Here is the input.
Amino acid sequence: MRNESAIWGLVEAHGPDLIGLSDRVWALPETLYNEYRSCAEHTAMLRDKGFRVTENVAGIPTAVMGEAGAGGPVIAILGEYDALPGLSQVAGIDYPEELEPGGHGHGCGHNLLGSAALLAATALKDWLAETGTPGRVRYYGCPAEEGGAAKTFMVRAGVFADVDAAITWHPDCMTRVDDALSLANTRMDFAFTGRAAHAAASPHLGRSALDAVELMSVGVNYLREHVPQDARIHYAYLEAGGTAPNVVQARARVRYSIRALRLADMMAIVERVKDVARGAALMTGTGVEMTVFSAVSNMLGNGAMERTMQSALDELGGVPFDAADRAYAARIQATLSEADLTQPYRRVGMAPRRDEPLCDYVVGLYPKGEVMIGSTDVADVSWAVPLVQVLAATHAIGTPAHSWQITAQGKAPAAHKGMVHAAKAMARCAEKLFGDRALLAEAQAEHAARMAREPYVCPIPEGVEPPLVPRPTGI
Here is the structure.
């Protein structure tokens, strides 16, 4: 570290408690809107650290908010704690072995994400109190990032309406300011209803919902040639009508994920996919019901926020990994392909480096690399307030996201070091914004100018509510 900030000491003081939280959440992998135990762990930690707690945020029982401070600007730190299905994995090893057969796992590092965000917020709480700085810090515990778009519902409900700026992070294999690029995405269900009949004796009396789904697939495949080149359209059968081929299938349901680099383009493609579904229903004499499951916008960058975060990273330096961290990371790298190992360097425009299991440096701002992007509900918050996201190295270079290897590394000492490092970067960035009102005003003016050119339209229609899951008995 080239410089030293007092707030980093505050982060370190609370580090052991929040590392413990991260490990507990790792051991409680819960998928979208099921995060009752993980949310309870975060809520208990917020109370223990002296935050004013609001539960059931936006009517979502697994969302929580903690606030500290008084007056001044409001800076939000965003956390997540949802897991992924089917990625159960024993920690600390370098081969696939399920911890629970068929169980879930933190294959995207959200156990670290929420804990580091709360750690940064806790350090900021102490700093505001010790320095007498006017301002409020809020920790938002956000569920269901993996496909549930909870933050989009939270933005629609107005929970960020009085926030002046927002900061978040994500575990990665390199440390840098995020590119602020993501694909707008709608997940939409198409449920076709036909008429059952004997497939041999009276097929003419049947109307096949399964035929309608297959014809929709044909139509969408032809559509792919006529959409913007950054668009992506994926699908999965949720219901195929049954397993009896001698029955004309009266029900079938398919979920489509429709993505594009710009929200407006995505919304236009959604309408065209809906037309294809109507055509498939018309061709088969079936009915179709179309329902949005979730949707997110594309990410908006903010130059003032990104430069501030980069300055915090440059002061902080790289994650201080040790020889044991590198040895374990090298064993993980041995399970990866050459393409896996080179992709992170391609993303940041660097030549691949051999014998570099972990990133212990900071990548410069706006690297000229290849664009490789997915979707996130963090994007909708970026339309509501100025936002910056930092990436911090927590796992071996080349580890693919949503993999058993990420789950395996989720409690490793390297992951703990990376999450503490991320908390220091976020806390320092927020400290700069609290301390320099002109800098915060610059970020807000940039955001306001962007909104004036292209106002926000929530991609989730009014009337569509989060697909909440009842609280399990005993939790």
User: Anything to note?
Assistant: The mean pLDDT is 96.
